[in-house]
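Figure 6 in text form: structure in, sequence out.
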């Protein structure tokens, strides 16, 4: 059985669907934790970037790229944490129809803004973080310098 057929304990009502009110808690709670880790890691890495006057223009560009991507990852991860918390608080009102054909349909219908923004923000923050790590690796190991003294032409 695929994810759409996962039994979450909800009993289906013919023509209406099943009660997916627990989906709010599961989705928004489970995405807050990795977003918090991503935010804290990004925030700590922002202060570990020092732009030196001795760096080449490519090195400076990699450091600036790393700084911007870490900042993006931090801001969007915090956005995920705040929107997830907001959705969880809003779910306490029970001012929604919990019946839907699937959990995805329920979240998309009743928590559309939070659901879409949280997914987009988390994915973009993760991409920004990975781009920053890539820039840092390129900088640290000088993998960009094809003309420098550390480049071994015999390696090709």
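Output sequence:
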């Amino acid at each position: 059985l695929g994810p759409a057929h996962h039994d979450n304990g909800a009993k289906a009502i013919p023509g209406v669907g099943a009660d997916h009110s627990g989906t709010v808690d599961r989705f928004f709670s489970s995405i807050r934790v990795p977003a918090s880790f991503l935010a804290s890691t990004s925030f700590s890495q922002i202060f570990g970037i020092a732009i030196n006057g001795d760096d080449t223009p490519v090195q400076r560009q990699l450091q600036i790229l790393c700084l911007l991507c870490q900042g993006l990852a931090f801001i969007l991860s915090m956005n995920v944490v705040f929107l997830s918390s907001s959705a969880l608080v809003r779910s306490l009102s029970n001012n929604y129809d919990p019946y839907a054909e699937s959990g995805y349909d329920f979240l998309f219908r009743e928590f559309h803004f939070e659901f879409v923004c949280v997914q987009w923000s988390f994915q973009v923050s993760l991409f920004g973080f990975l781009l920053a790590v890539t820039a840092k690796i390129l900088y640290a190991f000088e993998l960009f310098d094809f003309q420098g003294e550390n480049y071994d032409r015999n390696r090709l």
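Caption detail: The first helix runs from residue 22 to 46.
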